[in-house]
Amino acid sequence: MTAPRAAADLVARFDGVPVLVVGDVMLDRFIVGRVTRISPEAPVPIVRFESEHVRLGGAANVAHNLASLGARVSLVGITGDDAAAAALRGRLEAARIDAGGLVVDRGRRTTEKVRVVTERNQQVARIDYEQDADASGAVERAVVERASALARGARAIVVSDYLKGAITRSVVEALLAIAKRPGGSPAPVVVDPKIPHLDCYAGASLVTPNHLEAEAATHLRIRTDDDAREAARAFRARVGCDAVLVTRGEHGMWLSDGAGDRSIPATAREVADVTGAGDTVVATLALALAAGATLAEAAMLANHAAGIVVGKFGPATATRPELLAAVRGLGIGD
To answer: pLDDT by residue (tens digit) across 215-259?
Structure first.
């Protein structure tokens, strides 16, 4: 079997694979305009409004990426009882994402990021509407219950941690217990991490820090492949996870697991916006693993998927046709 054919066969197996995403859901709103002059009131640009649009963000963007690649997606997270939550649910429904796992916390607002950008996609300002205290009490119990119920039918689980309150130690422990349940088929647990929660991720199948997070966790500078290898190994030991994939932007990725280490070069693409690229990486990794890919194969597919979305503006998704076009010549099956 040729490498492109093997890659195509793997991506074809994405269709209908059940994947659970648990994490911090967000709504990303973009106000687009033209900068005409500097304000006489303060040294800031005046943006003349032209358009406005919204997109799924955070864990909801992970779910959107999975749906775009053909997965059957369930989503667990926390929203408020507000207009942003209604808009979020509408977008999820349009993307055919099961939002039945969303927990309403009337004591907090739905996380919403409002970006003011120019017609050339230059960001002028960002306003964050959020309350990021960790879930507790009845809300945390509801998240654990819904995540536990949906995890039993999933072939992969993504933990999308943005430190907005949905991911707590109890939530992660419940997911890991179900994913590795005795007598069942183990489901890989892929974590997009945040440094304050590192101690929560012990036992995860794969954790995906970016290079800054890996440096912060290990106190090691990453400038070369040798640096990346040492940091990835140290990160894996620090967290107690099975494998680590350090994302390094234009320098590609570094994969480390019990079988060894591997550098994955970046795909050559024009970068428009890196927003949400990490969401695409964890989504593709989890879906590929659920479809039977090896860790190295999943990482290579995720690398190409990330290369697609950084060429788009804002939180974006890669489709199966786009991914298939990108991986022609990829060394899967060699």
So the answer is: 999 999 999 999 999 999 999 999 999 999 999 988 889 999 988
What are the residue numbers of the active site? 279
- Distance of alpha carbon 73 from alpha carbon 95, whole angstroms: 10
Cβ pair 31, 117 in contact under 8 A: yes
Q: What is the pLDDT of residues 139-178, one digit of tens each?
A: 999 999 999 999 999 999 999 999 999 999 999 999 999 9
Q: How far apart are CA 179 and CA 147, in angstroms?
A: 11
Which pair of tokens denotes residue 267? Answer: 């795909």
Distance, in Å, from the CA atom of 76 to the CA atom of 185, rounded to the nearest integer, reads: 22
Label residue 102 exposed, middle or buried (CB < 10 Å: 0-12, 13-18, 19+): buried
Residue 26 amino acid letter: M
In angstroms, rounded to a whole number, what is the distance separating the alpha carbons of residues 312 and 314? 7
- Is residue 107, in this structure, part of any structural domain at all? no
Residue 267 lies in a domain: yes
Total number of domains constituting the chain? 1
- CATH number of the domain bearing residue 85: 3.40.1190.20
Is 161 domain-assigned? Answer: yes
Residue 49 counted as domain residue:
no
Q: The domain containing residue 159 runs over which residues?
A: 3-25+57-102+134-326
**Radius of gyration, CA atoms only, the chain:** 20
Q: Residues 306, 250: contact at Cβ < 8 Å?
A: no
Q: For residues 23 and 160, is the Cβ–Cβ distance under 8 A?
A: yes
